[in-house]
Amino acid sequence: MLAGLDGDDTSHKALLTKLSSYLRAYFKDQLVRVGRSSADAEDLVQETLISLHVRRHTYDRSEPLAPWVYTIARYRLIDYLRRSKSVSLSVPVEFADGIFVESDAAAVDSGIDLSKLLSQLTPKMRVAIQSVKVDGLSVNEAAKRAGMSPSAIKVSVHRGLKILSLLVREREQS
Amino acid sequence: MKTDDLINLLATHTKPVKRTHLRNTILAAVAAGAAATLCLMLLTLGTPEAVPGSEDLAIKIVYLGLTFGLVVAGVSFLLKAARPGKILPKPLIIIALLPLVVMVAAGATLLSSHPSTWNAMLFGPQWVACLLCIPFFALLPFTALIWALRKEAPTSPGWTGAIAGLVAGAIGAATFTLHQPSSSIPFMVLWYLGPIVFCTLIGALLGPRLLRW
């Protein structure tokens, strides 16, 4: 976490990967417990990962990491349950067994469509995120490709991610 | 979207985060809110009139001390509440004690003076202005604080909103006291604490709506 906060991509990636499997187990368990389908667990995992990333500056380096992650995951879960109150009502408990049969590989795909979300951003933000975050270009390369200044790229990426995290939560619940 | 793709997306060219980022954002919001309110006061009410005499000055110091204490305790609460996790009870105790001390002082003042002077003490100069101006002057600091807190991750939005309202109300009261002709401690309890409590309640109501993330 600490190396990730200092801007080390490899550590940040390792952390998010590790947390995603904990989060997946946590959300599946919690969703079943409140009588919801655990099919939405992956959406929650991704929403939480975005929250963890966008709000990583709220982590106090002198405190243990687990409570911070847990509190954010819990906040996302409560927020999700509140938002989707009217949608999928309780699922009978007897079907809950089937969930554990489902293979994990299939479950790591969520209902969130990245290209659809990206298309809702302004062209500048879309280009910036596409080249820096998806294609993995450096900020300078992305700036050259998009014909924008490096600082404009940085700002666009930053704003774009914030908006993406909002879009993810406000997308149609289906 | 695959979760691995999302992780790649998030963890590519990660921007380093400064250790003091959160603290600076909130302190900057408080400072900007206070400065803006001071300008607003000078614009709407004009520059304060005469320099107060020594007795008035003592009371002014009590006024400023109370509001300043509330701001400091409130901000230390907000710095913790802006992070996910449990809220800190210590600043809340200080916030509750400060008005209590002033109330005791007000009671003592009233008891030590003749009942015929109570009316003049309680309905001192500009009490209506207090009621209107303090919440009005709290608007800008409140907006600045909410704007800052929305970038953080408060997990108790009700409490966080309430204390943001309290800090804003205290800043509004401190600003107003710079302009208002001096008055008594009982006056402060009624017409200063009242509006600050009002701002706190409004903050508690708005917090859960404004501080969602």
Can you walk through the features of this model?
- The complex is a heterodimer of chains A (174) and B (213).
- By secondary structure, chain A is mainly alpha-helical.
- Chain A is 64% helix and 0% strand.
- Chain A has two domains: 1-111, Rna Polymerase Sigma Factor, Chain: A; 113-174, Winged helix-like DNA-binding domain superfamily/Winged helix DNA-binding domain (Arc Repressor Mutant, subunit A), CATH 1.10.10.
- Chain A has helices at residues 2-5, 9-33, 41-54, 65-83, 104-107, 114-118, 123-134, 139-146, 150-170.
- Chain A is globular.
- Residues 91-103 of chain A have low confidence and may be disordered.
- Chain B is mostly helical and 213 residues long.
- Chain B has one domain (54-210).
- Chain B is built from eight helices and no strands.
- Chain B has helices at 3-10, 21-45, 54-81, 89-112, 118-122, 127-151, 157-179, 185-210.
- In chain B, helix 3 (54-81) runs antiparallel to helix 4, helix 6 runs parallel beside helix 8 (185-210) and helix 7 packs antiparallel against helix 8.
- The two termini of chain B are 22 Å apart.
- The mean pLDDT of chain B is 87.
- The interface between A and B is large, with 49 and 30 residues.
What's the helical proportion of residues of chain B?
Answer: over 70%
The share of residues in extended strands of chain B comes to under 5%
Compute the number of strand runs of chain A.
Answer: 0
Strand portion of chain A: under 5%
What is the 3D shape of chain B?
A: elongated
Largest interface: A-B, 49 and 30 residues
Whole-number mean pLDDT of chain A: 78
Q: What is the name of the CATH topology of the largest domain in chain A? A: Rna Polymerase Sigma Factor, Chain: A
User: What's the number of structural domains of chain B?
Assistant: 1
Number of domains of chain A: 2
